[in-house]
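Input.
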Amino acid sequence: MKKIDFIKAVAASAGLSQDAVSKMLASSIEIITNELKSGGEVNITGFGAFKVSERKARNGVNPRTKEAIKIPAMNSPVFRAGKTLKEAIR
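Output.
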């Protein structure tokens, strides 16, 4: 499902306009992004949690040249599904 398909489905389900759902989705993504940037996390009960994972620097290999490279430390967004979502999928 693509973003526009998701917006149409939510609009039809909630009885809202596609424009309203699109604005709500954009705002939600922006809020989650800003919270993760500031080092926080976002928990949505029944759905899951968005967190930031700190990845340590490590050595790697360039698959094209087989040359050893140094991969720097970085922060990476992580989503962990909640119990309710996991059970619904099983």
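Residues 1-38 form one domain.
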